[in-house]
Amino acid sequence: MSVRGGGNLVVVLGDQLSTELPAFEGFDKGRDVVWMAEVSGESEYVWSSKQRSVLFLSAMRHFRDELREAGCDVRYRELGDEPGQDSLEGALTAFLGENSFGKVRLTWPGEYRLVVALQEVCKRTGVACEILEDNWFFCSRADFAKHLEGRKQPRMEYFYREMRRRYGVLMDGGEPAGGKWNFDTSNRKPFGKEGPETLGGRRSFDADETTREVMDLVECRFSKHPGKLDTWIWPVTREQALQALEDFIEWDLPRFGEHQDAMWTGEPFLRHSLLASSINLHLLRPSEVVAAAEEAYRKGAAGIESTEGFIRQILGWREYVRGIYWNFMPEYLERNAMGALEPLPAFYWDGDTEMLCLREAIGQTLKYGYAHHIQRLMVTGLYALLLGVKPQEVHAWYLAVYVDAVEWVELPNTLGMSQFGDGGLLGSKPYVASGKYIKRMSNYCDDCRFDPDLRSGEKACPFTALYWDYLLRHEDLLKGNPRMTMQLRNLKRISEGERSEILETAKKIKKDNRSKGGKRYGRT
């Protein structure tokens, strides 16, 4: 049934699942129409994992049903409805060609490519386009641009303090709660030999009929894509997301802090919130998550170390990386400051590697679409950085495999923070370490055949060998960075003979990675 009323067409993207977004302001149920579309191109422009595709599609269908129950006219294109229209822009172009609207309204997308594509669709079809600022964030794109003015080197810590003051979060008058802005040094403890304490209280969300239908669809349409669907835990509605938030605040926030950087075999979640996907899909407001955490602290239910560390992830890093993304795209995507050109190893797509830490982190990623921040930064990300993988390939992998991945948040964290591809815009140094870091923060090394204390030879941990190889390769580039002084000083203590052995070991590791081939998936 075509529409000829001349009202607004409200375009809702897969990560914009809330009627509180600006595109719905003034929505007239008698004239306006909501348009949503499932298109294979959104799962194929990167090799999107099955878990990620199911989460987006199931959450979209649940939101569609909620809108219809509320009396909204929703035109929803399911995957495969119209063969040949496999891109979002193709599907919207066809729909606008068959219907008449006064204006297309949408909330600012989470990817630069979609802003360009949707504007082009409206221009080509002659329909006015209104893109409204996403009000889900503490800091607008314009405000972040003002924050950057006059700063030669932006830093998240100063931005974070600015946000704390502006919104009065964890503030006691004009001073930070607990007497410090940042309790990061209190939150880096490994577990003892006995491992993490007994975990409990976390709710998982069984797949309902809608989610099961989507699972069958994804298994059929994207059968060769990475990942598994035999375990499902993710919220797909706002009601479920609120339940997940309540559980985290009660059970895990009080114990989150001191071991938030630790890792343990067979424990993919530990005390982490698992709320990022719900926030990024707009099922939860970041402001309500921050408020719930602060309320727990004010009531004495959670300590300042845990509360501040958790809030910093949302009010600090999440807002900061979004600002970096929108102020430096599209050029940011092409940055490669370290000149890294190695292909991504094939085992990133199946977890088939002898390195237990990578097998563990990638294995849980393929099973759940999740790994916590240290597993991403200091295991999967660190290995790619030390190996010298082209950052755009690393970015495509992270965007493909994690259920919480939307480009505005994933790209700066990957290319900037993890791979140092932006040369220090996001982070002040490359986050490089040997296998000894992983040994200290986990039990991964206990049953691994590699020795993190060795930097050359057959038994040497590839992380350790590649760490010293990385410093040798980039010594001249890094010597001007004061935060690398200690690491480069240690490098000078290595004899020429051992340097040659390290380089030979690293050369063999790289050759082995290349010889195994591997799928080089990314943007098409």
Q: Total domains, how many?
A: 3
The count of DSSP E runs of length 2 or more, i.e. the number of strands, is 7
Residue share in helix: 40-55%
Task: Report the total helices.
Answer: 20
Which class of the largest domain in CATH terms?
A: Mainly Alpha
Proportion of β residues?
5-15%
Query: How would a crystallographer describe the biggest sheet?
Result: 5 strands, parallel
> Whole-number average pLDDT?
94
What's the architecture of the largest domain, going by CATH? Alpha Horseshoe
Task: Determine Rg (CA atoms, Å).
Answer: 24 Å
Q: Which secondary structure elements does this structure contain, and how are they paired or packed?
A:
Blueprint lengths: L7 E4 L21 E5 L3 H4 L5 H20 L4 E4 L10 H11 L4 E5 L4 H14 L2 E5 L8 H8 L7 H12 L3 E2 L2 E2 L32 H13 L16 H19 L19 H5 L5 H13 L5 H25 L27 H13 L4 H15 L3 H11 L5 H12 L16 H7 L20 H12 L1 H4 L6 H7 L4 H20 L9
Parallel strand pairs: 1-2, 1-4, 2-3, 4-5
Antiparallel strand pairs: 6-7
Helix pairs in contact: 2-7, 3-4, 6-11, 8-10, 8-11, 10-11, 11-15, 12-13, 13-17, 14-15, 17-20
